[in-house]
Design goal:
Elements: H1 2-7, H2 10-26, H3 30-44, H4 53-66, H5 70-87, H6 97-109, H7 114-124, E1 140-143, E2 149-152
Antiparallel strand pairs: 1-2
Helix pairs in contact: 2-3, 2-4, 3-4, 4-5, 5-6, 6-7
């Protein structure tokens, strides 16, 4: 980070600063994490580096989440996904993969930019973490309690001309 500050190139502040802020946040140095985040925002203010806006919103959301401000965090996550869609720069969110999986699940549960979120999940191979909802685009979904259903890749498997003879192929969805 000191090299990035010395070079004073805005993009270096982001490239070196995000892992630094990540470490600060996850080790509980939330005030310092906020200070570095604000330093990053000031560094790119007025530049064409709006591609980092969703990423900076993700960092802020995580800091708020860790500080117990869950409602504020949720507001920031919603804003992050909307910003990612409007700028087309959601791929940078992969830099904070441990956080973004939870943020993707939140977006799916709350119906925020779901098409875009699912596309990023597939593109980056994000795996559902503990506690991810049923909304997650699981490769295979099987419901066996109540009515049996099967979906592969979000779709009901289709059969050929002959009727299937195995009970697991005769799903009703």
């Amino acid at each position: 980070m000191s090299v990035a500050r010395t070079l004073s190139a805005p993009s270096y502040r982001i490239h070196y600063g995000i892992p630094f802020v990540y470490g600060l946040a996850e080790t509980g140095a939330l005030n310092e994490a906020r200070e570095v985040l604000e330093e990053q925002r000031r560094a790119i203010a007025g530049t064409a580096l709006t591609c980092f806006d969703p990423l900076l919103l993700a960092v802020e959301a995580r800091i708020e989440e860790l500080d117990g401000n869950v409602d504020r965090s949720i507001v920031l996550v919603r804003a992050m996904w909307r910003c990612a869609v409007s700028t087309g720069h959601g791929d940078y969110l992969h830099w904070v993969k441990p956080w973004v999986v939870r943020f993707a699940d939140l977006a799916l549960r709350e119906d925020v930019e779901t098409t875009y979120v699912v596309r990023l999940i597939h593109r980056h191979g994000w795996q559902a973490g503990p506690g991810c909802s049923e909304c997650w685009p699981w490769p295979v979904k099987i419901h066996a309690l109540g009515r049996f259903t099967l979906r592969v890749g979000g779709e009901v498997p289709r059969h050929g001309r002959k009727a299937p003879r195995r009970p697991w192929n005769s799903c009703v969805c």
